[in-house]
Predict the 3D structure of the following.
Amino acid sequence: MKKLDILTPIGVVVGFLFIAFAIITNAGVTGFSSFIDIPSFLVVIGGLVGAMLVSFSIKELKQLGKVMKESFRNEDYDLPRLIATFVTLSEKARREGLLALEAEVEAVEDPFIKKGVLLAVDGIEPDVIVDIMNAEILALEERHRKNKSLLDKAGEYAPAWGMIGTLIGLVLMLKSLNDPSTLGPNMAIALLTTLYGTLLANLVFLPMASKLAMKTEKEVFMKQIVIEGVVGVQSGQNPKILEEKLRVFLSNEELQKHAEREQEEASFDEA
């Protein structure tokens, strides 16, 4: 189930707030306006947009909003419950046969689990099932890699365009050397483009790209558990053995929570 990943907006807001606090502490509220320069910001954004248009197709760029939105969402994987699902399917398959799972799997929401179980019901060889499901994982990783590359490139281009803006500002500054009073303010404005580009890269684009990479790793890890579960069910493994085999994928914390849940369920049944 997907839910809001509150850490992403909190991280971005906290980062900008601390930077703003540091500026105000040293320069005061009135001095904060010195860090706001619309032309410098337009150089970074305009150059970034232009570079992205050259690097990607319109179809790919349309995914940017959706990709950034994904970094604000988190998939809640309940691995102990996933393992329990396969133990239940294994028990039913051993008791009533694989064909009985066709009706059972209709209640499963995850399409990857459903696909694997239906392949097993159809009598597909285990090696073929593994190949098919691994191919789907590879396709998923490739899709996610392409989507992540949008943020990676944005994080790569933003500081570069900040530096280009600084060079533009330096050229303009050097042209006004005959007026020494303008050198300080012009230098400050020239450096703002580097500040804007670096902030966008290191507080927005690259952290979001890292978040998406972690989400992909979690999803692939979950799907690997599903493959092991499907093969175990199809081969008729003892449910207890299958459970022990799948539990190796759980962390110590998840194992502890799973044990506590089993204890609570046992206490409820006794009551």
User: Anything to note?
Assistant: Residues 148 and 213 are 7 Å apart (CA to CA). The mean pLDDT is 87. The first strand starts at residue 2 and ends at 4.
